Amino acid sequence: MSSLALLAEIRQSSERRPYEVLKLAEPLLNSSNQLTSATDDAWLVYEQVFLSALDEGQIDLAKALLHILHSRFPSSQRVKRLYGLVNEAAGHPDESHKLYSEVVDKDPTNVLALKRIIALLKAEGKMALAANELVGYLDTHGNDFEAWLELSHIYLGLHMYRQAAFCLEEVILQQPANHYFHLCYAEINYSMGLLDIALKEYLRVIELSTDNVRGFYGVKLTADRIIELLSSSTRSGSGGGKSRRDAQMSFSLDNVPQMPVLEKLSQLATERLVATYSANKAASAPTKALEDWLKQ
After folding, report:
1. The model's pTM
2. Pick from 125, 182, 118, 117: which is nearest to 150 by CA?
3. I need a surface site. Which of 28, 91, 142, 218 has the fewest CB within 10 A?
4. Cβ atoms within 10 A of the Cβ of 282, count?
5. Pick from 207, 197, 202: which is nearest to 220 by CA?
6. What is its main location (predicted)?
7. Sequence ranges of the domains in the chain
8. What confidence tens digit (pLDDT) does each residue in 25-50 have?
9. Which CATH class is domain 110-176?
10. Is residue 114 a contact partner of residue 133, using CB atoms and an 8 Å limit?
11. How far is CA 272 from the centre of its chain?
12. Which run of H or of E encompasses 107?
C-alpha cells in the first residue's frame, strides 16, 4: 500500500498517530511532484501532517505547511483556525482566542473553533466562562453528548452538583447502555444525599456491567446508609422524629425499598465484593482487612 493510501486510511479512522504520519509523509514532502499528483488529497495531506507536526512539537514544520495552505487558500476560515492552533502551540493563547473568535463571528456554526475557545478558557482556569460558552454551544448542538459530559466535569469542579447531574441525565438519554455514565450519575446523587436515585443508578450499573466493583461498592454503601437512616428515624419515634429525619435525609422514603430488600441488596453486594477480593489467593493484609470490613 502506498504512503498516500496509508495516510488516507489514518485520516478516515480519525486516529491520532502523529509519529507514523510524519514518517509516511516525509518522502512525499521531499518529492513535491509525488504529492501534487494527489490532486485534492494533497491539501488534506498537508493539513494532516500539519496537525501531526504540532502533536510532535515540530512547530517550524507546522508553520511551513501552514504557509503552503495559506498560499492556496488565503481566505479560508479553516486555515485561519489552523493559525490559532499554531499560536496555541507556540504559547500565544490570546492570539489564538482572537483568531477563533473571528472565525465564529463569520460562521457561528463552526464547531471546531467554538470548542477551541472553550479549551482555551479551561486551560486558563476560567471554568465559569468555559461553562457559559458550553451552555451556549449546547443550545445549538444538544445532541453532542461529549459536550454534555465535559460540562458535567466543569460543574463538578465548580461544586455545582445539581447542574452536573442534569448534564449527565442528558448524556444518559443519548447513551443509555453505557454503564460508566450511570456510575458517574449515581456517585453525584450519592454526594448530594439523593440516596434513592443513587441506589437505582448503582443497580443499573451492575445490570449493565455485572462484575463492576465500583457499582457493587455503591450498592453496599447506599443500602447501608439508607438502613442506618431508617433505623435512626424509627428510634426517634413519631414525635420529634420527622424534623430530625428531614434534616438527615434529602430523599423520599417512599422511593426506597423496604428494609428486608435493602438488607438483601447489601448482603449481595458484600458477597460479590468478598468473592472478587478472595479470588486473589495471595491476598495482602490490607485486602483481608477490607474483606473483614465488608462482612461486618
Report:
1. 0.80
2. 118
3. 91
4. 5
5. 202
6. endoplasmic reticulum
7. 1-90, 110-176, 191-296
8. 888 887 655 565 556 678 888 999 99
9. mainly alpha
10. yes
11. 28
12. none
